[in-house]
Amino acid sequence: MSNLGTLQYDVWTMLGIAGGILFFGRFYVQWIVSEIRKESVIPVSFWYMSIAGCLLLFPYAFNRISPGGTFGLCFNMVVYGRNLVHIWRERGQLTPARNVGIHVFMGAVSGVAAVLTAVTWHRGYGNTADFWFWSLLWAAGQGMFFLRFLIQWLWTEYQQRSTVPRAFWHVSIIGTCFHLAYFTHRLDWILAVGTLADAFIYIRNLYLSKPFVAANRAR
User: Fold this and answer.
1) SS3 track for the chain
2) Domain residues of the chain, as ranges?
3) What pLDDT digit, counting tens, does each position of 24-67 carry?
4) pTM for the whole thing?
């Protein structure tokens, strides 16, 4: 029985590590591409890694009874999918079947995520001051992470192409501070280390997206 429990623990941990590598590693791919091009850009692989990482980290967070983890991971799926739609349209790859398929996929994942997040919240609920303090701290960070992609999404819809404004990186740094504290408190080192590791990328992108950097690159 002990061996079975250890095996189950290892499976969930490996799932979380694999998802964390994809989810948090997406910003390192983005960073490398940005350094090569000398400007802050997001490659299409970023969006694919976002989706794959979410799908792997979600069951890991559900198993850990982490409503903060489950809620935050899959609701951005709509933003990831919409960016792919714009990229496919720009490249002439957006077929009617692909367009319908990605929207059905986004809706299904978000629906399942809502139900499982409610279940996770119920399992982990505790009506104490400590519970509410850390829940509110997580909510503040998640609000920032939702806001950054809302800003990016609205800007992308306005521009009719996948693009990232500087505000995205400012808001990312604020959200990181809240989430780092929350995941460290929960001793969730996969999400805590991944969150901290991405902070450097946010700061570097702020530099690369400065107007004078872009101007120098254009010379």
Assistant:
1) CHHHHHHHHHHHHHHHHHHHHHHHHHHHHHHHHHHHHCCCCCCHHHHHHHHHHHHHHHHHHHHCCCHHHHHHHHCCHHHHHHHHHHHHHHCCCCCHHHHHHHHHHHHHHHHHHHHHHHHHHHHHCCCCHHHHHHHHHHHHHHHHHHHHHHHHHHHHHHHCCCCCCCHHHHHHHHHHHHHHHHHHHCCCHHHHHHHHHHHHHHHHHHHHCCHHHHHHHHC
2) 2-218
3) 999 999 999 989 988 888 899 999 999 999 889 888 888 877 77
4) 0.75
